[in-house]
Amino acid sequence: MFPKLRPDADRLEYGYQMKPFPDEEVRVAVRPQPTLWEQLRQRWAAWRSR
Question: What is the mean pLDDT of the chain?
Answer without folding.
Answer: 86
